[in-house]
Amino acid sequence: MSRQQIRSNQLITTFGPGAMVDLPHKSIIVAGLEKWAFEPGKPCLVEEPRLAAKLARLLRQQNQSFKGYSIELRTPPPSGDAMFQRGLITPGVTGYIFPHWFIVQNVVLTPQKNRRRRLVMVEQLNDGTGKFRDHDNKNYSVVPVRFVRACRKGHVGDIQWREFAHGGQTTCQQDLWMEERGTTGDLADVWIICDCGAVRSMSESAEKGELGTCNGSRPWLDDSERVCGEPQPSKPGPRPSWS
Ligand SMILES: [Zn+2]
Ligand SMILES: [Zn+2]
Q1: Which pLDDT does position 139 carry in this prediction?
Q2: Among the four 61, 105, 142, 220, which has the fewest Cβ within 10 Å?
Q3: What is the pTM of this model?
């Protein structure tokens, strides 16, 4: 398979709305159903009238606002085959880039022989190539940072890396780094460092409240932030290794 694809039945199970999908150079979060685009005249309907009627009945029992709505069952919209063969991918299923922070694949060895890589935001990447132009004027590939924050109610969001490194609110805009001080990949071996001298171990991010309280963000719905307030430890993302 030359391009990463997801089968329809994967979209119904593992990679439904809100799931993170690891692509070669970025990861995305699958958008809610309202952002899935069906081609005109191809609604991908599934004819199961008895199941649809039962679901409608159950939903109306649970939530009065479903009264007046009927249920329609559909398969996920396929990407257009002709467009796909021409290299023009027009997915019917929307995905948003998430997380918005990346690790630059340019290892700098510290005097202590630790491996250090830049931590950059999506806005710092080249629009066309998705690469990062470093201070040496070379373009480097990036991989998504493998840590995001999550709360018990299911909200997820980016870790506020600047605030984390500085231990609270900051106006510092100097370069950020992620440094490995061991080979285990354990949180205690991963350090977040700012060029101003601020430094913090990722092991602290796992402690309750260290990442602040949840703002209720649901990036797969593209909606405004809502109040949640749960304390949020960090949550490793889908990438098994960040090298
Ligand atoms: Zn700083
Ligand atoms: Zn929350």
Answers
A1: 96
A2: 61
A3: 0.80
